[in-house]
Amino acid sequence: MGAARTRGGTSGRRRRAVPWLVLGLWVAVLALASPFASKLSDVQRDRAVDYLPASADSTQVAKIQDRLPGGEATEMVVVYHRDAGLTAADRATAAEQIKEIADAHRLTGRPTGIPSEDGTTLMYPVASNEPGQDEEARDELVNAVRDVAQGGDGLGVEVGGAGALATDAAEVYNSLDGPLLYTTAAVVALLLILIYRSPFLWLVPLAVAGIADYLSMGVAYGLNQWFGTSVSGQSAGIMTILVFGVGTDYALLLVSRYREELRRVERPYDAMLAALRGCGPAVLASSGTVAAGLLCLLAADLNSSRGMGPLGTVGVLCALAAMLTLLPAVLVLLGRRVFWPLVPHYGSAPKARRSLFAAMGSSAERRPRAVLVGGAVLLGALALGSFSLPGSIKQEDSFTTRPEAIAAMETLAAAYPESGTQPITVIAPTGRADAALAAARDTRGVESAERGRSGDGWTELTVLASAPPQSAAETATIEALRDTLDGSYVGGPSAQQIDLEDTNARDTVVVVPIVLLSVLLILVVLLRSLVAPLILVAAVVAVWGAALGIGGLVFGPVFGFEGTDPGLGLLSFVFLVALGVDYGIFLMHRMREESLGGAEPTEAALTALRTTGGVIASAGLVLAATFAVLASMPMVQLVELGFVIAVGVLLDTFLVRTYLVTSASVALRRRVWWPGRLSRVPGEPVPAGDRERVGV
Predict the structure, then answer these.
(1) SS3 123
(2) Which of 163, 205, 356, 627 gets the highest tally of CB atoms within 10 A of its CB?
(3) Residue 578 has what pLDDT?
């Protein structure tokens, strides 16, 4: 009796101590991460070189410009415009303001006004090495020029060019941090309140997700400092979305299983242990698959894509750590009362409800092949919409709002319809600079070429094409320059867009097979099967095609977008495959549990759908809503990416997981586990010794 009391007392003390110990460890971790998390915005870079392909001509141009005297140049165009035609007073005002700008800042060369043929517009190309690589100094310079360049009384003045566009883009990305976090948290909170129907429970996973996001910021800063991982506004925003999205998904799965166990187990601590044993392997497997899929982006040549892989992985792993340690500790400490008013009392039975997923499973059971074929045809038809996707987006169409730099570009395009208004930068070896200058001037489509700075063995040439920026004719001129100027690099804004398109095409060919192979291998190891992983991978690929097709049907006609981001296909593929397989693991893990318990294949599939359908649907809604937050952002590429991923997650949740995967499992029966042990075992349960060897 005394020994029993001692064991009981020891067990009770452990139940009380472990949650507090976990909580204390998290306080210590956050204290260590706090100084670094607050510095993440300091290392965030949104310069062109941070997004460009690592090996492209335009990237080499940007890097060499950094080493030239004065460093990287900030190029701007000051545009003066009057619809009725510029007056002599307007030209005098322009000359006076440009002189004031030149006197106040270290400009490269003497600004010269270029009038339009119709006399309505006068543009002054202006460049300065004053800021160098310092983004804050660049923004200060652009804003200082804008403060001087002012119009009035019908005279419009706009400051555009690559430097001004970078400043406007940086302002947009910097403005995302607060609104993106608050909007995401608000959306997740609303959905959790609706799902849990409790005034308290929703706060716990939301607060834990916020802590995980804060930790991920500290880890991301550490990666930047130790390994030089690039951090951009886009990748930091995606990391936040992933933390809240997948973190809440894992919380939903854990809380659902914990609620079940509380009805069977008396003590919350023991119920949580049972819940972690039940759903922990599935959560670990799914997060590992997502992380592996994201890490495949390291094979990309595009800097922005390659940097997004590690940051996305950091977000997923921080969310996993928080949801499997901190969330259980907090829930155990709060006890059953956190579920009020729907408290799961020990020994009680859940309220019987008519299950939508049971009805869906019944229809899949009656006509599995018809459901499977019908769903495949639907997804295939939707995927055809991808042929309607608009072409690559131009710089002036990349904002949902209209910043000043874009207004300047539109004014220039209208006033100089047959002229180049955006310089092409050529970097040539100094010893061959004169020959390169002569060859550039002789290249078809070149209007003018001038020699610029020299240093470190390189000389800068500024070339102006006769065709408008990002037109087919200007593209041909850039390609001709690259073919003609052997040993030189051709860059500038238009060349960067060409390199982005080409590199995204290359990255898609390289990364997509790596993602598919890595995810497939992980699933084969986890599920001890070849057929089930092939079904899951084929399903998520079909979802990606259908989601992209829906985007093609709405981006132009409904949203009015003039183009799509070159990286949309690759990034949406990686996220949808990784996240879609996530839900497939939840479903297949439960199906496997039922099969290991001796359930017939059809019964196992329908039980898995009935028991996990609700939580997967809730998780899918939360994940889709978090990515849909991107659709409210003022950048077209973020809107497009958020839309495609949100639509894909909804298709995966309510069509593929519920109908198609279940129908395929019912139709194939035990063959779904081929060539694993479950495919060969008859109706009796698998022996206990084998369960551990063949289970997930």
Answers:
(1) strand
(2) 205
(3) 82
Q: What is the rounded average pLDDT of the residues 611-633?
A: 82
Please report which helix (H) or strand (E) contains residue 489, including its range: strand 489-491
SS (H, E, C) 19-42: HHHHHHHHHHHHHHHHHHHCCHHH
The rounded Cα 560 to chain-centroid distance in angstroms is: 22
Query: Residues 358-370, buried b or exposed e (16+ Cβ, 10 A)?
Result: eebbeebbeebee
Structure tokens at 328: 């259980």
The pLDDT of residue 96 = 94
Q: What is the structure's pLDDT at 585? A: 81
pLDDT over threshold 80, residue 322: yes
Residue 243 near residue 315, CB atoms below 8 Å: yes
For residue 310, give the nearest of 244, 239, 377, 368 by alpha carbon.
239
* Tokens 């996973």 belong to residue: 205
At 114 the three-state DSSP class reads strand
Helix intervals (H) in 443-567: 472-484, 493-527, 531-554
- Structural tokens at position 613: 């359908």
Q: Which helix (H) or strand (E) holds 427?
A: strand 424-429
- Closest of 478, 625, 387, 650 to residue 58, by C-alpha: 478
DSSP letter assigned to residue 76 = E
% of the chain at pLDDT higher than 70:
91
* Close Cβ partners of 376 (under 8 Å, ≥ 6 residues apart): 542, 660
3-state class (DSSP) for residue 470? coil
When pLDDT is cut at 50, 70 and 90, the band that residue 690 belongs to is very low
| Maximum separation of any 2 CA atoms in the chain, in Å | 106
DSSP letter at 401 equals S
CB-based contact 461:485 (threshold 8 Å): no
pLDDT of 5: 45
- Give the pair of three-digit tokens for residue 258: 């914990």
CB of 72 closer than 8 Å to CB of 503 = no
Selection from 520, 524, 551 nearest residue 537 by Cα = 520
